[in-house]
Amino acid sequence: MTAVHLRINNVNVTAESGMTVLEAARNAGINIPTLCYLKDVNRSGNCRVCLVEVKNGRTLLSACTTPVSEGMEVFTNSERALRGRKNTVSLIMSNHNKNCLSCKRNQNCELQKLAEDLGIRDNKFEGEHTEPQYDDFSYGIVRDTSKCVLCERCVETCRKVQGLGILGLENRGFKTIVAPVYNKSFMDVNCMQCGQCVINCPVGALTEKENISEVVKALNDPNKTVIVQTAPAVRASLGEEFGNPIGTRVTGKMVAALRRCGFDRVYDTNFGADLTIMEEGNELLDRVQNGGVLPMFTSCSPGWIRYIEYEYPELLPHLSTSKSPHMMFGAIVKSYWAKKTGIDPKDIFVVSIMPCIAKKSEIMRPENKTAEYVDVDAVLTTRELGRLIKMYGIEFNELPDEEFDQDLLGDYTGAAVIFGATGGVMEAALRTVKQQLDGKKLEKVDFEACRGMAGVKEAEVDLNGTKIWIAIASSMTCAKPLLEEVKAGKSKYTFIEIMGCPGGCVNGGGQSIVSSRIKNGPLGYGYKDLRMKALYDEDEACTLRVSSDNPQIQKLYSDFLEKPGSEIAEELLHTSYSPKEKYHIFD
Amino acid sequence: MERLNQDSLKTIDEIVERHRNEPGPVIVMLHDVQDSLGYVPFEAMEKIAEATGTSVAEVYGVVCFYAQFTTSPKGKHVINICLGTACYVKGAQALIDQTMALTGTQINSTSEDGIFSLDATRCLGACGLAPVCVIDGKVFGNCTKETVTAEINRIKAAEKLA
How far apart are CA B17 and CA B9, in angstroms? Predict the structure, then answer.
């Protein structure tokens, strides 16, 4: 790398050759506004918002695609550059529906922010609009092209993060739209519904499908007992919806807010996570000891489940049959809890607060129905919970900290909390399995090799003299090489944790949206580490940190489920999978 | 829409195999598929995507970007009439009207019997011969209504339509 010397806004800047003007400026602490640019994901240069003036340049240049050169003089805020940037944003606005007041991204929209920052005061170029496409047919994702700015961040995210490339640009010129193939619904293609496209969309073109009104209706139905459960990752992100710094753990305030919304019981999905470990751990031991299909894959991430059903159906026998924690929790509420409390399961409405969009499709799976009841009735994402709390006029930040309800399903261990980060399920499973095999209390519960934000992690673990290899992957691009190994029969691993979203649930498609200003800035993707830390801190603060030590789990087994993998546990807590056709183009 | 027959699937496989290791294979494959089958069926996009490590959405993006590619089968005989500026000024619209009247097709579509397709093309680069039309790959310069009528009637006779 050779050093390149240039001047940006009359300040001497030293950059490395190959850097773009945008990168050189950011390194020097000079912010150039962007829209389509997303670090490591998208650098298409097609929005033209980052226009800068280069001395002796014939035209304005986009900073994100222009390489630095020796002696270059750049002006990011010259009158000409500002005029160019304003015109660009005005042109983008001219083909945008501007229904900001009723948009889910109101006050959280990167185009709105640009228009505000640049002081755009009129609809300078208002004219024709591209014919809009609206798709709210899938369970989780809504596409509204009348708000799309064609930045391609979603296209590149799906391609690079999940390797699927569900979205592409269709047609040309003014008619260009972003759409799944044949402009089909997400429902008709091999979309895993992870929602990474949603959290990387700068505007409201891709959003989660809201289920808030169903929940409000249930809360107001006097015949319904409405039970809410919150996933571990939610507490590490919800605070952001109320202006708290990333990584603020708001467990207590979240519980208080849910109580004030009128939920009859506020539980933690962590109980379900501990239960999952009991079942999944038992399944793993059974497979190891009785020659079952190995390696075994975890099954907590519904995005990953959708992916394997579409892309690797031949590997389905490797998937643990254990339901995901919130589905187990729902099944237990409508059986064990209903019996103990004497409430008719048909009058129980279970709401899951999830960091996840794919969970919305998971609850609709016919395989996840126990008797005549669905396990979970509605899923709200972290963002939707934020909206519900605001709708109820609750001042979140002023709430006291409250505890989850403790009856029957209230205890949880630290092992469950870390489910929300990549590697957490693996670590939780290892704690329980190791303790069980060693036959004595685990002295050291931390498995450091499982931690961190690396896309793929592996470790060799000693389980009572038997050494096994484990692997952890998050995002499908990272998981794919592991899957190919398994497919070729060359995998050395015994147990593989796979999460659909990069970094696991803390970075799920239902979490608070982190703007590209942060992702492109000094923190970068470190926001995931901040949320992860919040979970490991809570784990450390727990007295019980091994799932099988949870006293209410032990009681659940002694009173009701007998033992992991029993007939009744199989019926309530396990599910099945089947290959799914990728495209429904001609139906 | 019905699924593709075995012969067509085999043709697609051969095309994909032939160009697999070429640079920029997607567009080359699409051209060959369009030429061989008269359109680009969804199955071809699937196979091309798989062979080239792209997604069907991306391949479809290419297909709908270029006017040369179609996603529904073309007629047996394809009539292209240039609507570039020179051809238009020299009366290409009259050729289009005449063709529509004689064949029963609309612009950029195919007649119900599947015999004729009519495409209004962008500039073919033969402005000196304007107006230009291309019938089944043969270029007719300084084209008149009479030329078009004669050719269409010849095809109709060959197809025993008239």
Answer: 12
User: In residues, how long is chain B?
Assistant: 162
- The DSSP call for residue B108 is T
B40 contacts in chain A (CB < 8 Å)? none
Q: Is B53 on the interface with A (CB under 8 A)?
A: no
Chain A partners of B71 at a C-beta cutoff of 8 Å?
A: 182
B81 and B152 belong to one structural domain = yes
Q: Which alpha helices (DSSP H) does A14-59 contain, by range?
A: 21-27
With beta carbons under 8 A apart, name residues in chain A contacting B1: 586
Q: What is the number of structural domains in chain B?
A: 2
ipTM score of complex: 0.91
Q: What is the C-alpha to C-alpha distance for residues A35 and A354, in angstroms, rounded to an integer?
A: 28
Answer whether B55 sits within 8 Å of A172, measured CB to CB: no
The reply to whether residue B54 touches residue A165, judged by beta carbons under 8 angstroms, is yes
Q: Does A585 touch chain B (CB under 8 A)?
A: yes
CA dist A30 to A12, A24, A25, A43, A422, Å? 12, 9, 5, 19, 34
- B20 lies in which domain range? 6-65
Taking phi over 0 as left and psi of -120 to 50 as alpha, with beta for the rest, B102 belongs to alpha
Question: pLDDT tens for residues A521-576?
Answer: 999 999 999 999 999 999 999 999 999 999 999 999 999 999 999 999 999 999 99
| Least CB–CB distance from A165: residue in B45, B57, B65 | B57
Q: Give the number of other CB atoms < 10 A from CB of residue B21.
A: 8
> In the 8-state DSSP scheme, what is residue A151?
-
B63 to chain A, minimum CA–CA distance in Å?
A: 9
In chain B, residues 6-35 whose CB comes closer than 8 Å to chain A: none
For tokens 């056709």, name the residue: A581
Contact present, B27 and B15 (Cβ < 8 Å): no
Quick one: B59 and B89 in the same domain?
no
Domains and CATH numbers, chain A: 3-94 (3.10.20.740), 130-208 (3.30.70.20), 222-573 (3.40.50.1780)
Cβ–Cβ gap A181/B60 under 8 Å: yes
Kindly list the catalytic residues of A: 280, 283, 300, 320, 359, 362, 367, 505
User: Model-level pTM?
Assistant: 0.92
